[in-house]
Amino acid sequence: MSIIARIGRALGLRDSIGWAEWSGAGSWTGKVVTPETTLQIATALACIRLTASTISTLPVAVYREAADGSHQRLPDHPLAVLLRQSPNADQTPVEFLEGMVGCLMLFGNAFALKTRTAGQVRALTLLSPERTTVRRDPQTGELEYVYSDPRGRETYTANEVWHLRAFGIGGDLGLSPIQYGRQALGMAIATDEAAARTFSNGMRPSGFFLSKNTLTAEQRVQARKVLVEPLQGSENAGRTGILEGDAFTWQSVSIPAKDAELLATRGLHIEEICRLFGIPPILVGHAANGVTAWGTGIETIVLSWLTTSLGPLLTRIEASANRALVAPAERGKVWAEFSLEGLLRADSEARAKLYASGAQNGWMTRNEIRRLENRPPVDGGDVLTAQSNLLPIDKLGTIVTPTREVKLPANNGEQE
Fold first, then answer.
1. pLDDT digits (tens, 9 = 90+) for 263-282
2. What's the CA dihedral at 295, 300, 302, 305 to 10 degrees?
3. Given Cys at both, which of 72, 89, 244, 362 links 384, Cβ 3.0 to 4.6 Å?
4. How far apart are CA 42 and CA 49, in angstroms?
5. Burial 349-385 (b: 16+ CB within 10 A, else e)
6. β-pairing, 143-149 with 152-157?
7. Which of 186, 254, 245, 147 is nearest to 25 (CA)?
8. DSSP annotation string for 114-167
9. Distance between CA 72 and CA 374 in Å, rounded?
């Protein structure tokens, strides 16, 4: 975070990320853990991108409960237009939801300013969590949102802001994964830096050239230029140096990378970060011991992710959006909902099984299936059908198959 971005930002006593930026601390490794440094960790970026991209590209629809209890889809409802077509003048729905989910996973909170017309929310503008301070009015106890930027400071009421919270313990704010996972993230930053510096030095152990004589300042500069600089850098890996006479000897003082288990440590922090963000490591390209990316193994892992991590997060977003974006007069009657069937778009075999089950068991019509595949309806496709061989046991043998009736001429075919 730059010094300009810090101007006008209020720091609370519990804002450990903000204070870490100012003090240069934040983790036991001494590395500063901020959203910017977190996104420089490849595993963290992959986890956040995977979750945000998956959620933002899922189909979302707005429904109303009809008098008969069925769910009526409302494609022209203002909330549907907002979430499916144009959240604001500058972003697509995918870009907006990516930003909201990204902020949620980095800061634990995401904020969007609501613009209303005739009681309906018509636009949503993403607010930076770094510039937003959440507080309560000392007199009324109502939530307030103070937003600071170079143009000034604005205070918004809870009715003007959509506040999406991550996992929390009942407070006004969600818990930030960056704040509470800074030790694991700091370890990852330190490990990546150590690995990079090891390669930049040609993977040779560091140490000292020991001189039997005391060197002058000029001799130190000349010795570094002749002995040290030609062997530094990854481009000089494998080069051989020459020591003349017995003026210098080499003394190694470092631990070899194998003994330090550098590679194992890097693999471990990948799993730690994936655990922090609720992503199976295999989904970001890391196969742990005993995990396979083939067959039913990866299918089970993806299903587990959808059930235990992505599903609850989608429910959290739906509940927050329905509370903050639906007009008060329509709450409980109108709601927005993600369609998980969108995850099957790339799996033709799974789609075929789903559609076959719906058509054969009478819970989807053929025109509903064709609509999901962007195909035009057909005559007679709005009728629910089911397989006739699925009969109760006590009805077996009681169903008489209709036969064609043959009309015979009068008087058994005899002419009068």
1. 666 778 888 899 999 998 88
2. -160
3. 362
4. 10
5. eebeebbeebbeeeebbbbbbeebeeeeeeeebeeee
6. antiparallel
7. 186
8. EEEETTEEEEEEEE-GGGEEEEE-TTT--EEEEEEETTEEEEEEGGGEEEEE-S
9. 19
Q: By the 8 A CB rule, do 326 and 335 touch?
A: yes
pLDDT score of 289 more than 70: no
Mean pLDDT of 68-78: 86
Q: Residue 165 pairs with which residues in a beta bridge? A: 109
Rounded to whole angstroms, the Cα distance separating 183 from 399 reads 70
Beta bridge partners, 252, equal 207
pLDDT tens, position by position, 299-337: 778 778 888 889 899 999 999 999 999 998 888 889 999
Distance between start and end Cα atoms, the chain:
109
Please give the Cα distance from 256 to 15 (Å, whole number).
Answer: 39
Question: How far, in Å, are 54, 187, 261, 280 from residue 58 at the CA level?
Answer: 7, 34, 41, 20
Buried b (16+ CB within 10 A) or exposed e, 183-215: ebbbbbbbbbebbeebeebeeeeeeeeeeeeee
Q: Residue 62, SS3?
A: strand
Distance CA 286, CA 47 (A): 12
